[in-house]
């Protein structure tokens, strides 16, 4: 009984996309610490991330896949099918797909191709991953999409298009929760605010503005975000679905 409480995801297989980006490493570690074996997608053409060897040394089974190029719906479907073929049916899927561009809607130099890429990755590719993964998911599985609190509150000029992509994922996940609820599968969105891992290399003025905009006046950590994700993946969250978890220090309050 104690082991089950200490390792609530023991015997489960979790698939995490873009595990080497943003909160990906912290999320992979948190899922592994909860007992899950992992399938992860990482950037192609780079050395294998160090956290993978650390997890393997601790006894976690980690199967690594490369993020497809080009990164589009069709290639994402193929990726998820390869994952399912390699590891069997999935228990947890964490969708960490994002591209972020900033232009005001009346900007004469607005890059339409970049905005189309943003929509293709943030919406179409993310939905393709979720839809395909659910088809190969065990009953009582967990789907967790990583989003942004700007889906609720667009507090910065130039983020209208980006916020629209994040809001689209919220709407999709709410609908998907109804579709797969009878199978005991939950579908939730974790919306991130000012998280340290997402602001690496950002100008100090931006970081200060991000902290000032939330109620706690600080940055959140990747580990704090990963803790919320791991909770939603656990048996304790079995009656939580179609829900938005804002991990933003009160930015959306």
Automatic annotation (TrEMBL):
The record's annotation in InterPro entries points to: NAD(P)-bd_dom_sf (IPR036291), SDR_fam (IPR002347)
Could you tell me which Pfam families the record lists for this protein?
Answer: adh_short_C2
- Swiss-Prot/TrEMBL keywords: Oxidoreductase
Q: Which Gene3D superfamilies match?
A: NAD(P)-binding Rossmann-like Domain
Protein family according to the UniProt entry = Belongs to the short-chain dehydrogenases/reductases (SDR) family.
Which PANTHER family does the UniProt entry name for this protein? DEHYDROGENASES, SHORT CHAIN, ESTRADIOL 17-BETA-DEHYDROGENASE 8-RELATED
Q: What is this protein called?
A: SDR family oxidoreductase
Q: Which organism is it from?
A: Rhizobium oryzicola
Q: What is the lineage of its organism?
A: Bacteria, Pseudomonadati, Pseudomonadota, Alphaproteobacteria, Hyphomicrobiales
